[in-house]
What does this fold into?
Amino acid sequence: MAATKKAKPLDNSRAVDEYLAKSNHPFKAEMAAIRAIVMNAHPLITEGIKWNAPSFYYKGDMLVFTPHVKDHVFMVFPNGVIIPDDAGLLEGDYKDRRMVHFNDMSDIQDKKVALEKAVQGWVKMMDQESA
It folds into this structure.
């Protein structure tokens, strides 16, 4: 592997399973629903625990839960890549991140397609960067 390329993060779904099993987060079920949406959005997405939270990867860090927020589900796309978002799912106008909020299961269902498109948009942008 060339020194300039990042190693692919190992898939550590077991660690995420264990994290969620032990979690007492009030939106634990919502986190699990979002996890399923993200993991099903593209077959090469992997997951693990980073920053003490479930995180998703595709050619590097892609999306992370922020579990210290307890009144809703808060997630961050932590890198500087700004994902196209015609649906208005992503919040923030930062050069280094975009955020997503989910209030309940109904909100997750309402935003499901937009989240899938955001994840797929990330994959597309990362593929273009590495081409």
